[in-house]
Write a structure and sequence with these properties.
By secondary structure, the chain is α/β, with parallel strands linked by helices. It contains 15 helices and 13 strands. The strands form two sheets. The protein has an eleven-stranded mixed beta sheet with strand order 1-3-2-6-8-7-12-13-11-9-10, sandwiched between helices. Strands 4-5 form a two-stranded antiparallel ribbon.
């Protein structure tokens, strides 16, 4: 009997190497969990038909002595990351039957290690949302409390790992879409520095903000996946090589906290847990420093101007003519209107309209250009802060996982849940969410997370602080 609850990537690799069980055994154990739990949780939109074949390939590598740390590791893949020959729909009716014609670079890199791709994970349509309620194929429920959301937009990826339906997963993060669902589901979520991981083969939402990253049980597991997918890619000119900045000898850090920003609607239980987490860090020998980020109050507004602007541009290609859903009309204009109306959900249409507005004549300078100016100020604020501290710490989310349907009718309330995560995307910085404790709601424990942000290209240091925080055992 394989204990999936306590399994990590390293533990699984050790068991596979010692032949305690095979990759096929491990894959079957996860498939059984999927069959039992997914009808209720809806983390997967599809499980792949060739799981057995993938697992057999992994077993052959172990027999031949060529297996790596990720060989045979069962993974869930977010439904906006292309895998050749497989449906990838971005959880949208617009692409419901679209089949990938090539592998995303992150998939090509993973395939070199022969993991087992279990299936495509549910998400908010075209990654637009913070709850996975915007999926065209139904909401993903939180395994900790199925009356609540799993977060978003990578909610399916997070729920799959939290419910032991995958050992780890890939997600994408545009404004917190890896870190927030990881926090809601009691997992580690890592958003790399912009350019550290190739976006080739990731369906674009907002190109200057998007990054692929891992959702896993531990900081070590997230690091193993990041190391496999990182690096330059000739298919993505924004990619870069990152020199390992981890100083193994350094075990004590200066951690900056923008305390003046902590009164922005933070739930009382979240604030207490964050304060307790800071005390635990102090006991480990880290120094907590009060810092100022003068323009951080504007981060959310900047994000919700720049992101829709890029959305309106990136989704213009989905017109019902070249590919995707097509609806006949009496003329070309009506075909466009019908195809986009039926192909896109409410949130996607809302962001396209907003983005088109801020880019329109007469409003471009008033909104889009000003947002870019403030974006540059935010970059400078963080650069100044990092002259005196190693990390910036905040709660990952101002609230625990909320009830399904609770915020659906109020988009602004939904957007406010991103208040602590969007700044990392705006400034291109790496950030990690690590489980920090629980809030009790109606007799059920809901996971909470603490977020650490590091200087640009200092991704590796986040795994160091993540591992150290995990050792603090604050809960």
């Amino acid at each position: 009997m394989i204990d999936l609850k306590t399994l990590t990537i390293k533990k699984a690799h050790d068991h596979l190497s010692k032949k305690d069980f095979t990759a096929s055994d491990l894959a079957h154990a996860y498939v059984k969990e999927i069959q039992n739990k997914n009808p209720d949780i809806n983390a997967y939109l599809e499980t792949y038909a060739d799981i057995d074949a993938q697992a057999k390939l992994a077993d052959q590598k172990f027999e031949a002595g060529t297996a790596g740390i990720l060989t045979g590791i069962p993974l869930a893949i977010k439904d906006n990351i292309l895998i050749k020959g497989r449906i990838v729909s971005s959880a949208s009716k617009m692409l419901q039957h679209y089949t990938g014609t090539y592998d995303a670079t992150v998939i090509s890199k993973l395939k070199e290690h022969a993991p087992v791709f279990l299936g495509r994970a549910n998400m908010d349509e075209f990654a637009m949302g913070g709850s996975t309620e915007n999926s065209a194929f139904g909401v993903t429920k939180n395994p900790w409390d199925t009356s609540r959301v799993s977060g978003g937009s990578s909610g399916g990826s997070a729920a799959a790992v939290a419910a032991d339906m995958a050992l780890a997963a890939l997600g994408s993060d545009t404004g917190g879409s890896i870190r927030q669902p990881a926090s809601f589901c009691g997992l580690v979520g890592f958003k790399p520095s912009y350019g550290a991981v190739s976006r080739h083969g990731l369906m674009a939402m907002a190109s200057s903000l998007d990054q692929v990253g891992p959702i896993a049980k531990t900081a070590e597991d997230a690091e193993l996946i990041f190391n496999a997918i990182r690096g330059k890619d000739r298919m993505d000119s924004t990619t870069l090589e990152i020199i390992n900045n981890t100083t193994e000898a350094k075990k004590h850090f200066r951690i900056g906290v923008p305390f003046s920003f902590m009164d922005k609607g933070v739930d009382a239980d979240v604030m207490k847990n964050f304060t307790d987490s800071l005390e635990a860090l102090k006991k480990l020998g880290h120094e907590i420093v009060d810092i100022e980020l003068p323009n951080i109050d504007h981060a959310l507004a900047v994000y919700y101007i720049l992101m829709p602007a890029e959305v309106s541009s990136n989704l213009a290609r989905f017109d019902g003519v070249k590919y995707g859903l097509h609806k006949d009309g009496k003329d070309l204009l009506e075909e466009y209107l019908l195809s986009r109306k039926e192909g896109f959900g409410d949130e996607v249409r809302r962001r396209i309209i907003l983005g088109t507005y801020v880019l329109s004549t007469g409003y471009y300078d008033a909104y889009y250009n000003k947002a870019n100016i403030v974006r540059a100020l935010l970059v400078r604020d963080f650069e100044t802060a990092f002259e005196n501290v190693d990390f910036v710490a905040t709660p990952t989310s101002p609230i625990p996982a909320f009830k399904i349907g609770e915020k659906s009718a109020d988009p602004l309330a939904m957007y406010l849940a991103d208040i602590f995560t969007v700044s990392a995307n705006i400034t291109s910085l790496p950030a990690i969410s690590v489980p920090s404790g629980f809030a009790n709601r109606e007799g059920k424990l809901l996971p909470l997370g603490i977020q650490f942000t590091a200087p640009f290209k200092h991704d590796d240091t986040l795994f160091t602080i993540g591992k150290l925080f995990e050792q603090s055992r604050v809960y």
